[in-house]
């Protein structure tokens, strides 16, 4: 009987291990959040990189699916749309990574040259690989990043923080 007790006393219980894992996970989450918040320009860089990747994906999907795809900023984010003959611009309905997104933190996008109206997409990718491009400027936290979108691809430049 003493041999059974001494074997059990040498290890940790499952509950103790789970508590330690939860504490480590919480600490890691807080450390990542704290480090990500130290430099506002880093968050803007991340948003610009993610948006550039989404633009590259939209170009690939337009060619592969032979569809006209557009990009529209919204009040708190952006969405991709596709041209439907007889119906105009409709939200992109396929689950290919072109889902509507929210800005985090809120950003103010602007377009050069300025957009004619808010109902027309700011960027349009055609099935033949052409793109009606522009320079999209993202501003927030005292910094800005510009995404130049054209038939050659997407490039990101920035200023501030």
TrEMBL record:
Name under which the protein is recorded: Type II secretion system protein H
Membrane topology type: Single-pass membrane protein
Similarity field: Belongs to the GSP H family.
Keyword Membrane: yes
Domain General secretion pathway GspH: 47-153
Domain of life: Bacteria
Subcellular location: Cell inner membrane
Keywords assigned by UniProt, alphabetized: Cell inner membrane, Cell membrane, Membrane, Methylation, Transmembrane, Transmembrane helix
Keyword Iron: no
Organism from which the protein derives: Salinicola endophyticus
Transmembrane segments: 12-36
């Amino acid at each position: 009987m003493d041999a059974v007790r001494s074997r059990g006393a040498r290890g940790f219980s499952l509950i103790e291990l789970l508590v330690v894992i939860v504490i480590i996970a919480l600490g890691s989450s807080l450390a990542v959040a704290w480090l990500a918040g130290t430099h506002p320009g880093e968050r803007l860089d991340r948003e610009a990189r993610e948006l550039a990747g989404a633009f590259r994906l939209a170009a690939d999907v337009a060619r592969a699916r032979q569809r006209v795809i557009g990009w529209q900023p919204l009040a708190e984010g952006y969405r991709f749309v596709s041209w439907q003959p007889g119906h105009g611009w409709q939200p992109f309905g396929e689950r290919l990574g072109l889902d509507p997104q929210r800005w985090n933190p809120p950003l103010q996008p602007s377009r050069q040259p300025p957009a004619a109206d808010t109902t027309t997409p700011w960027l349009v990718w055609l099935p033949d690989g052409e793109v009606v491009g522009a320079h999209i400027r993202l501003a927030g936290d005292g910094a800005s990043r510009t995404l130049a979108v054209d038939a050659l691809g997407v490039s990101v430049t920035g200023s501030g923080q």
